[in-house]
Amino acid sequence: MELEDRLNEVRDRIRKASAAADRAAGEVTLVAVSKTFDAEAIRPAIAAGQRVFGENRVQEAHAKWPQLRAETAGIELHLIGPLQSNKAAEAVALFDVIETVDREKIARAIAAEMVRQDRKVRLYVQVNTGLEPQKAGIAPDDLIAFVAFCRDELGLSIEGLMCIPPADENPGPHFALLAKLARKAGVARLSMGMSGDYETAIAFGATSVRVGSAIFGTR
Fold first, then answer.
1. What does the pLDDT look like over 187-202, one tens digit per residue?
2. pTM
3. Measuring CA to CA, how many Å separate 195 from each of 65, 75, 163, 198, 204?
4. Residue 8 contacts by C-beta under 8 Å, 6 or more apart in sequence?
5. CA 61, CA 100: separation in Å to the nearest integer?
């Protein structure tokens, strides 16, 4: 199956999952996760009309996206991997959305860079819903206070929450927890669901799903 066929299949499944959940058409954004794929592998997705992409690493994204953006207008780039504070300047310059804000140090670095560069970047807080020690993200119990800190002390607008459920658990309860936290925090958007569980995420209210292997194939 060609990339365009896989992409169209994912789009169709998103439409069907949205309809099954009584969600409006177009309410769920597909973030095509292009990490580890080079520009040549990404161009067919752009040619098929995909405009929203996710990358894990600032350095890798910097090597391919400036050229791809020069070729095609309207690209929206999401950082979906952990961000170190020493990469904040590059991240703010390159990405439109940073989904992995998860501690005070990185929030401060992003806030300072947005002022310095006079550039607004949309922000999500990553929540470690499974409290996995090896995984980035703020603990659920700390989320409300952290969002308040970002808003009140740093003047940051937090658009959404993001999570990656434990691989060996039913993702549904994690998606439900993220949706509950978003309501409590007064946050509108939910980035949740990947290639194996994005239809479940849509049922629980995802506004964007991050799909990589189902579109680009195995890495």
1. 999 999 999 999 999 9
2. 0.96
3. 23, 21, 14, 6, 16
4. 48
5. 15
